[in-house]
Write a structure and sequence with these properties.
The chain has one domain (4-188): Nucleotidyltransferase, domain 5. The relative contact order is 0.21. Strands 3-2-1-4-5 form a five-stranded mixed sheet. It has 209 residues and is an alpha/beta fold. Strand 1 and strand 2 (37-43) form a beta hairpin. It has helices spanning 4-16, 61-74, 85-91, 93-106, 141-164, 170-173, 179-188; strands spanning 22-28, 37-43, 77-83, 114-118, 130-133. Helix 2 (61-74) packs across helix 5 (141-164) and helix 3 packs across helix 4. The protein has seven helices and five strands.
Length: 209
């Protein structure tokens, strides 16, 4: 939708009201069979000048990369956090995602007056007012910006790790359970990048450190 950012700008302006500093939070990588989960938090100084911003899933790769650079240049504050597959196996993916979000928010360097979190859950242990926003990455600019950061960072991680584990196609599918990935799992078995607690990876004895 070409004007999605205008709709999100209006919604964010209404939500912000007199609250002051608003931080948007989102994550990427809850569903894959391999790789980390990445969360990002973003504070936008203004709702102006974000034409083209949208939920990362709605943007092309080139558009995401362009918006990623724009957020890094123009956001008042941003931070991302990465939690790897062994920690995901220990904690479960929901808890690992929330922990990554907490690290991102508390690492912003500014104290937001309100944290808006994509999804159903607020973030445990974060000392700021929060609001969970279902489909927030398609409704609020700050969450959309966070979704772009989380997605681009995670994709870049998976592309680099593809060079370490070249037999699985991570650069192409980013760890999701595509037919190509499932075939590689059948052929090669899991590698250290896989989430051993996820079906169909399912390593029974987890090599926790």
């Amino acid at each position: 939708m070409p004007d999605a950012w205008r709709r999100m700008r209006r919604a964010e302006t209404r939500l912000r009201g007199q609250r002051g500093t608003l931080a948007g939070v989102d994550e990427a990588g809850r569903g894959p069979l391999a790789g980390p989960v990445v969360a990002a938090a973003v504070v936008l100084d203004s709702t102006d000048g974000w034409n083209g911003l949208d939920d990362s899933k709605m943007l092309t790769r080139d558009a995401r990369e362009e918006m990623f650079a724009r957020v890094l240049q123009r956001a008042r504050a941003f931070r991302w956090a990465v939690i790897g597959p062994r920690a995901i196996d220990k904690q479960n993916i929901r808890r690992a995602s929330l922990n990554a979000m907490a690290r991102a928010v508390t690492g912003l360097g500014v104290a937001p007056d309100l944290v808006v979190v994509d999804g159903l859950d607020v973030i445990p242990g974060v000392p700021f007012a929060q609001e969970a926003v279902v489909d927030g990455d398609a409704r609020l600019l700050s969450i959309a910006a966070a979704s772009v950061l989380a997605k681009v960072v995670r994709d870049r991680i998976m592309e680099r790790l593809d060079r370490v584990y070249p037999d699985y196609g991570f650069a192409k599918h980013k760890g999701y359970g595509t037919p190509e990935h499932l075939a590689a799992l059948d052929r090669r078995g899991p590698c250290a990048l896989h989430r051993y607690s996820f079906t169909p990876v399912c390593v029974q004895e987890l090599p926790f450190e």
